[in-house]
């Protein structure tokens, strides 16, 4: 499970208006769609948060996450403003564990996302490794 937060997106709406913010979201959606497989699912989770389900993605296939992050963050967004807008994103990732519920998977992705934001934003943070019981 992947949670994506568009960094400082409220500032885009405040400075340029909600129509521009909506245009950025539409372009984010188009960029995401170009990166995803037919089996992947994406949805808007909150104002500036997106939730991705990437079935079969292992911890060893993080190159896909980097490709998604780069697709959203590297190129500016042409949305009818005087200058293209640079928008970055923070990403939190969790992987399915035996016994997981949707809530536990989401909680770990959310925790990873907030670590990414606290660590300076515009980065990918995986969930913490499963703690071993001694």
TrEMBL record:
EC nos: 2.7.7.65
Catalysed reaction equations from the record: 2 GTP = 3',3'-c-di-GMP + 2 diphosphate
GO biological process, one term: negative regulation of bacterial-type flagellum-dependent cell motility
Pfam family, one: GGDEF
Keyword terms, alphabetized: Nucleotidyltransferase, Transferase
InterPro entries, alphabetized: Diguanylate_Cyclase, GGDEF_dom, Nucleotide_cyclase, Rev_trsase/Diguanyl_cyclase
UniProt protein name: diguanylate cyclase
Native source organism of the sequence: Xanthomonas campestris pv. phaseoli
